[in-house]
Every structure is written in structure tokens, then in C-alpha cells.
Specification:
Blueprint: E1 9-10, E2 19-20, H1 22-31, E3 49-50, E4 58-59, H2 62-71, E5 80-81, E6 91-92, H3 95-104, E7 126-128, E8 137-139, H4 140-152, E9 170-171, E10 185-186, H5 189-196
Antiparallel strand pairs: 1-2, 3-4, 5-6, 7-8, 9-10
Length: about 200
């Protein structure tokens, strides 16, 4: 019986003549072309991930392609647009980007918590809730009535509690880019520290 790693197994292709141990022979036969024939398998074939939006860019991995599709100026996927003119109608790729913008930038002392708008729908019938501390914008008077009944009404399951000194004792004392105080309140010092960053 031959030694385990002895090269006594010939390649099964005609005219090759190479000797291998058993495991190496099978790899050689699969990945090396013989007699002008292509190899049965390709040892390394890099995958190509083309841009799905049609710009022609290709990537070797999927995550850079996804990042390109979201952030590339070529595709202009910024579909969430702020409805306030004071910030120049800033546009965002994702809804939470717009929500962060609205939360942290004072638009003429109006701080709505939700202003969602898709491109092509320019601020139709947006109405702001008049309850102090809420500031949510909804679509039309009927939705405002529904919101008021569900959130602020006497039968609401989770009553609305505005951010007061009692519920959010930590106040940010930083000034924004216009020199106005931030006035953002948090429940914990850790949240305040992360807000200040």
C-alpha cells in the first residue's frame, strides 16, 4: 500500500501525465484546463454586482453596491423632503433622516416631531396639532381630529405626556448655529451627552 501523500495517482486526462496524491488529483482535474478544453470549474471567479439603477457601475461585493445606490448623487434617491423653506427644503434618503433633521433644527421656533413628505407631494393640507408639546403634523383636518382623539382624548390608551421638567429633567444648554438655545430635554444624562455630540 502506498504512502498516504505519495504521488502515485496519474491525472485521468490523456496526455497530461502528472502524478498526484488522491485529493490533489481531483482538484487538478476539476480546475486545470486540458487539451484545449475549459476547466470543469473555475478556481476563482469574482462575482460582479452591477448597479440596479442603471448607471453601469459594478462592484465585487453587495454592500458597496447598496451603499452606492443609496448615497450616489447620480441616482438622486433623496425622496424625503422637509417642507419648511427656512432650511432650503433639505432632502433625505430615508424617513428617519428627515425625522432627525426636524427634531434637531428649529424651523422658526416650530419643532414638529414628524413631518414626512414624499417627492412630488408638496405639503398638501398639512395641519399641526395645537396641543402644547406635541407639534405633530398630519394630513388634513379629519386626521387631526383622529389624532387628537386617539392621543390626547380622554379615552386614549396611552395618554400623551409632553416633555416637561418632571419627565425629562436634563436640559441642553448649547446654542444652535443661529445662536438660539437648543432647549432639548432628555430623561437621562447619558441621552443628553449623546444629544450634545
Amino acid at each position: 500500500m502506498p504512502h498516504r501523500f505519495a504521488k502515485v495517482f496519474p491525472c485521468r486526462h490523456d496526455g497530461c501525465g502528472k502524478l498526484f496524491s488522491l485529493s490533489h488529483r481531483s482538484r487538478h482535474e476539476m480546475y486545470v484546463p486540458h487539451n484545449g478544453q475549459p476547466a470543469l470549474l473555475v478556481w476563482y471567479r469574482p462575482k460582479v454586482f452591477p448597479c440596479r439603477l442603471g448607471c453601469g457601475a459594478t462592484f465585487r461585493l453587495d454592500w458597496p453596491r447598496c451603499e452606492h445606490e443609496l448615497t450616489s448623487q447620480v441616482h438622486s434617491l433623496r425622496t424625503f423632503i422637509c417642507e419648511f423653506e427656512s432650511c432650503g427644503h433639505m432632502a433625505f434618503y430615508v424617513r428617519h433622516g428627515l425625522a432627525k433633521h426636524v427634531k434637531y433644527f428649529d424651523h422658526e421656533n416650530i419643532r414638529p416631531s414628524r413631518v414626512y413628505q414624499r417627492k412630488g407631494q408638496p405639503g398638501r393640507n398639512k395641519v399641526m396639532c395645537s396641543v402644547v408639546g406635541c407639534g405633530i403634523y398630519v394630513q388634513g383636518k379629519r386626521r387631526l381630529e383622529e389624532h387628537t382623539e386617539l392621543v390626547h382624548g380622554p379615552n386614549s390608551k396611552r395618554p400623551f405626556v409632553p416633555r416637561t421638567e418632571k419627565t425629562h429633567p436634563f436640559l441642553c444648554d448649547k446654542q444652535d448655529w443661529e445662536g438660539k438655545p437648543c432647549m432639548h430635554r432628555t430623561k437621562t444624562r447619558w441621552q443628553l451627552a449623546s444629544h450634545r455630540v
